[in-house]
Amino acid sequence: MNLYIIIMKYFIVLIIISLILLNCYGKSKTETINIPVDFKERCSMLPDGGPCRALILGFYYDAESNTCLDFNYGGCKGSLPFRAKSDCMQHCVF
């Protein structure tokens, strides 16, 4: 085989491995969710699915109906008042 072809094959393999590692260990595309510790503040938070497209089930308190309703959280930015309906019911419904 031609030395040039061998070098090019190794170069292409090296580029592919680099791209795979960059994808796996590169900067995360998601952001940390800041959920307030104060439950009264969380009970007044409005749901915001955010710009991402994951379908994470979240819950928020609806004062008008005095119950906890579900919504789809996208996985980044936005707001996720409660991850579990039981937490929402326990701290917000009276």
Mean pLDDT: 85
Strand order of the largest sheet: 1-2
Distance between the first and last residues' Cα = 79 Å
Q: What fraction strand?
A: 5-15%
Query: Total helix count?
Result: 3
| Low-pLDDT residue spans | none
The number of distinct β-strands equals: 2
Q: Which CATH C-level class of the domain at 29-92 is it?
A: Few Secondary Structures
**Oligomeric description of these chains:** single chain
* CATH H-level superfamily title of the domain at 29-92: Pancreatic trypsin inhibitor Kunitz domain
Sheet of most strands: 2 strands, antiparallel
Provide the helix percentage. 25-40%
> Element order, helices and strands?
HHEEH
Taken from the alpha-carbon principal axes, the silhouette is rod-shaped
Which fold name is given in CATH as the topology of the domain at 29-92? Factor Xa Inhibitor
Radius of gyration: 23 Å
CATH architecture of the domain at 29-92: Irregular
Class from secondary-structure proportions: alpha+beta
